[in-house]
């Protein structure tokens, strides 16, 4: 199944299941009930952070929830708050016919496992008993059976396991404890609900008997009909936005007559006990969960109070959790100080109830924010229409709202940077690293009234905050809601994968999304990625590349996002970074059926990769094209304490990845050393390969003639060692006066090199498809770089039959076998001496070295390299794995 087909097929299969369920009971003999919803009495959350911050799960008044359920067409009200039925008792006291219900958090006494259990039809006295028994789920379930109280296991594949991973064994116990399962949860996606359906359908009487023997549990102690598994549905709504839009049909024979004689709550309880239940509605998708969390975050900002430092520190929980909650509390208090942002969140919250922005809000909004207010107004209008129209509107308005406020933020940020940019037009990396620091006081970071940065040379960042605060906070809240929605949908991905494998059904597609900031920049990284795309397209590998670019057109296996904004790191146009739309990225990742990520660049896409890791619970690898620590040591004048700071930043960044793909042994050993402390098992050697237009001309290679020609190809910059070329060339020219030196490339050191080496012939930047002819003109390639992690130019030259002389470090040291395809030098003097040695050797030996050079590329075949890469990432390959160490052996 291809990635693009996975979700479509899951959706189609599950909707067909729901259609069949809806047809089980005649319309005139069924009640429509949302068996899982919450209001403000769900005030003590299970999550530690909620308790630390004194945040209820919702502030929704009971009356508003009742109106929403009635508007959605439910026939009977039940409210299932956490560990209490206060809302049900209150409604009953007012004379309303209500089915009592609650969602109890129950614990396994022999395990760190906790689950939610829905219970219906109990009395206040029975509620007290249930709360006492919930510390032991076996006693709880046995008591419910004894009292004939129907129980339902909600979201069966989402439960609490402490710090350990949820397992199939935990599910097996749950299969023995319940006979009713929520197979449709409005706050879970299609895949999770579908997997719940498949799991329930797999629980045959024979299998349950096997599980009973395995776990020493008799299901008859907990279930009236152990082998009869019934399916329910509920919205699991906490905010009253989608309450009643999914739930359960309850079958009652001769309903029209019986409802005249009995309360609907009694009839519903009878149907639940008999198992006459069928789910209705649809699962929650990305836009619904994003909306739910966006509304919740809005209410947190509106209602949250200071939890108190002493209380926070004395509460149960780890120090890390307490410090993070302290940060959240400070952030919320700062947000509450910004009245414009608070007004926006209040307006959005009201729009979800169908209330349009007030007139005064319209009058107080600047022209810049009019489109944002218009979107909120459209949302309020859609809320007053059908649920289907509202859901469709959410798919359009939430991303549009995010794009608007994010666009405003980046526009203002760009203006602020231009105002505070130093007089020098060139961005100083040295200054950035030297002065990069954050204050330890959060108030100092966020308050425009605080003092400026720690020295007078730094940009006055705090002066920008007044203009940036609202769009930054609004974008952060919307993006955070989208992130949290995905995180909830996929938090239990390991369990879903394990269950799919156990059932041999519902397996998620296995596809890699390969992220890069550099695809059409003409550098070594983009050259490799273009070669990679060619191979992926030819072999139809489960890999898609993704980049963010304003004009690049997508291709098969190449996804292109249009940027929200862009930023020039150095001089305009020299190195531009594009900011992707994160909501669009999340949609693309989910709909593409990806389940793992590789990232090729550190800046924007490195952060995006880590974002996807935590949003979708997927493994993320980093492909190390560049040794940035070495780069900054060689290209800047920083003192060791500043390069040490940069090393620690790199170490913290790389430690976040599940694995690192490394291009040479020296770099791998450094990453595993005390300097970086990356576990050796996370480091995997890989390699590049060359395009066929290099290998096709190897047979045309000729021996050096009367005018030997040397070549340097690559970026002309300090870290590439190009300033060693004048010394090397002068030493060679002293022995061979007519020697030529071609220099192909461009870069920041070009002017300086021209002054020091005017005798060379400068070709400028040469397109990749024309470089083969340049290699053909030369007799030796010189690479005076100690920085190249691989050395694509080395392999390109060798594949044309051109021997190479390079410094004995990094990638070239792994590729060149000294005396066979070229030589490795330790200094400029030694490199010059080796050039002279080669040019004065007998032609027979030169021909032999050219032949060995042309053969070397055979050790770097894309099929073998990609097969090993797929194997490293846990995907099936089409051929046996090569041994990467053998390729690097010298």
UniProtKB/TrEMBL annotation:
Residue span(s) of domain Glycosyltransferase subfamily 4-like N-terminal: 523-691
Entry GO MF terms: glycosyltransferase activity
UniProt cross-references to InterPro entries, sorted A to Z: Glyco_trans_4-like_N, Glycosyltransferase_grp1, Pol/histidinol_Pase-like
Keyword Transcription regulation attributed: no
Record key words, sorted: Transferase
Pfam families named among the record's database cross-references: Glyco_trans_1_4, Glyco_transf_4
PANTHER family in alphabetical order: SULFOQUINOVOSYL TRANSFERASE SQD2
Protein name as catalogued: Glycosyltransferase
